[in-house]
Amino acid sequence: DDKVWLTLFSMNRYCVVVLFFILHLANGDVSYSVAEEMKRGSEIGNIAKDLGLGVATLSSRKARIDTDKNDKTYCEINLSTGDLVVLDRIDRDGLCGKKASCVLKEELVLENPLELHRVSIHVLDINDNAPLFSEDLITFEITESAVKGAKFLLTEAHDADIGTNTVQRYILQNNEHFTINVNTQSTGRKNSEMVLVKELDREQEKELNLVLTALDGGSPQRSGTTIIRVTVLDANDNAPVFSQTLVPKAAHGDHSTGPTCLYSTH
Fold first, then answer.
1. How far apart are CA 67 and CA 59, in angstroms?
2. CATH number at residue 188
């Protein structure tokens, strides 16, 4: 029994030592924010200063940046200055899509003795994408009997950016027949619909071509356009009309049983 307790005590003490060693390795965290698409070599921050390390220490202890899960490395250390700099293009849209937060997880590794520092890089969105419609031409066939207030859902424009840098509003080319309504969903996405405000008349206009523009809220602002083509379909809204009045064929004194008329319906 004494041997068993002695063994358990030794194992527990070993576990405590290992746990302490692991905690010692993860010596501290540092966090930075950087805009996407920064040029290679751009300074993110002075990691030596932020962690209280001397610049000479970085070289003597072979400082380097490693990534979690063997992912691509987007930054490196300038051993002469202690700066953390951009190593490769950081495309937030490709890395994180529409996620509200985009964080790169990396580690600063120092040797002799081994020491690790977690590095979090928050990638900020910039307005580097314009709204884009999936179609260059949106077509509608609308009968001229359509009543005022009729609504027609329009194709949504997509923007790879997030927040205010994505689509904020739509503009429809000024015209006398249609206006536009924009509805904002709980997710922030915006849908638009075309609303008829003046009846169509095929006899006056058989086809309308209107420009629809989507605009984002970035600075500088970006936009995308598509064409709406409305083909006006005929409705039976006109009665037949004679081109001239009835003309009697017989003159006075004709004793025929009834008048014979000539007429035309052009």
1. 20
2. 2.60.40.60
